[in-house]
Amino acid sequence: MKRALTVAIATLVCSAPIADAAQIVSGKVTKVRDADTVVVQGVPIRLNGIDAPENGTRAGKEATAAMKRYLHGRPLHCELNGDRTYDRWVGICFTNEGDDIGAVMIENGYALDCHRYSGGRYRSLEPPGARSRLPQASYC
């Protein structure tokens, strides 16, 4: 029991700096996992409010390739909201030019607005036909 308590406390202490102090993560993209998850300065970030197809699909592979091309060599500024999903922090990431990378993926037809998490902020950016071409996740 004492060991379990120690592990629980250590886990909280180790994760606290990201959740409390580092609501902003800035730096170079070290990895693009897929079209809605990037790693910045070693921090995995799930883009809030977008729904991109899974990598196991043709559309998902195309979307991931597009994200890699778009972000190649670019630093990002990510605003985390404090939520987590799996091993990822949730947030919105911007290029140094101020472009919301989730919005860019949606505008270019690689992802859809996920109203449940975006509040609909990206819906107007979806190109015509995107909803019939891309699958929407059930949680959106």
- The helical percent reads 25-40%
Number of strands: 7
| Major sheet | 5 strands, mixed, barrel
Q: Given the C-alpha coordinates, what overall shape results? A: globular
Mean pLDDT: 86
Q: Care to describe what's here?
A:
- A 5-stranded mixed beta barrel has the order 1-2-3-6-5. A two-stranded antiparallel sheet has the order 4-7.
- 35% of the residues lie in helices and 31% in strands.
- It is globular.
- The chain has 5 helices and 7 strands.
- The chain has helices spanning 2-21, 58-71, 101-107, 115-118, 130-133, and strands spanning 24-34, 37-40, 43-47, 50-51, 75-85, 88-95, 112-113.
- With 140 residues, the protein is α+β, with helices and mostly antiparallel strands.
- Mean pLDDT is 86; it is low at 1-21.
